[in-house]
């Protein structure tokens, strides 16, 4: 693979997999629970798409990093600066279209986690689908289906507004006002 101008490719190939996973956990999962505990009095996450769906997308990012580390032969357009800016635009679009949430940690998810994941996914999709083996491609599709299934479940069961769900189901007493 020629020298990539796509930031995620540079980072994902330069850093050991365990460090990538530790950084993803430290920025995607820990702040949600710690922030809710500090700000709302209880560390919760009832949204299945945020718990299990984001975990599936995290595993996809690790899979993409493994594919990148093999340095597959990729079309030039997947490694140039123009493609990087398109991927950045995907992250910015995710930020701009994210709904406003009344609680700080929901905003953190909508305005930080979603855009970062959108950028990482957009920038690595061609890598996996053009440079991955069949099992990696199938696993990737599976991870996206898992995330989509949990998102559908959350929408169907009104779990996206987590604080409201907790209050409506009799657990509001555990939260700070």
What does this structure look like?
The protein is mainly α and 177 residues long. The protein has one domain (7-174). The protein has helices spanning 7-14, 17-28, 30-40, 48-69, 81-97, 104-131, 134-156, 162-168. The chain is elongated and about 55 Å long. The model has no long low-confidence stretch (mean pLDDT 89).
Short description:
With 177 residues, this protein is mostly helical. Helices cover 72% and strands 0% of the residues.
Task: Quickly list its features.
single chain; 177 residues; mainly alpha
Radius of gyration computed on alpha carbons? 18 Å
User: Distance between the terminal alpha carbons, to the nearest Å?
Assistant: 54 Å
Mean pLDDT, rounded to whole units? 89
Fraction of helical residues: over 70%
- Domains (count): 1
CA-based shape: elongated
Total beta strands: 0
Which percent band covers the strand fraction? Answer: under 5%
Q: Return residue spans where pLDDT drops below 50 for at least 5 consecutive residues.
A: none
Label the structural class. Answer: mainly alpha
> Tally the helices: what do you get?
8
Biggest sheet statistics: none
Element-by-element helix/strand order: HHHHHHHH
Write the layout of secondary structure elements.
Layout: H1 7-14, H2 17-28, H3 30-40, H4 48-69, H5 81-97, H6 104-131, H7 134-156, H8 162-168
Helix pairs in contact: 1-4, 2-4, 3-6, 4-6, 4-7, 5-6
